[in-house]
Write a structure and sequence with these properties.
36% helix; alpha+beta; single chain; 26% strand; 5 strands
């Protein structure tokens, strides 16, 4: 059984509040979970102490047992000083797609022609 430390959504429509839970990876997002580790309220200010309430000792214990935190939970844990978040870098994803590159090449060729004519 692979375990995930992830966010489960609670709260009202347009007012999300998340619980940080340990759950089986196959369980639904808001469904069955093994243990509740804390809460996260993204609508509160980033410097608000009640924005993230998390039992870091339990989180570390679950990670030691093999639970994999999701990307967002890794960021939240890093903000509390548990572990570190490694920023990803995918320069290929930032490149324009094929048609945009063709348009840019055509524009550059047209600019060269106008420069040569002048």
């Amino acid at each position: 059984m692979s375990l995930k430390i992830r966010l489960a959504r609670w709260g009202a429509k347009k007012r999300p509040v998340y619980r940080v839970v340990v759950a089986d990876a196959r369980a639904p997002r808001d469904g069955r979970f093994i243990e509740n580790l804390g809460t996260f309220d993204p609508l509160k200010a980033k410097d608000d102490a009640t924005r993230l309430k998390l039992d870091t000792e339990k989180a570390q214990a679950w990670i030691a047992k093999g639970a994999q935190p999701t990307d967002r939970v890794v960021r939240l844990l890093a903000s509390l000083g548990v572990g570190e978040h490694k920023a990803g870098n995918n320069p290929v994803k930032a490149k324009p797609k094929k048609k945009a590159q063709e348009r840019a090449d055509a524009a550059a060729a047209a600019a060269e022609k106008t420069d040569e004519a002048a």
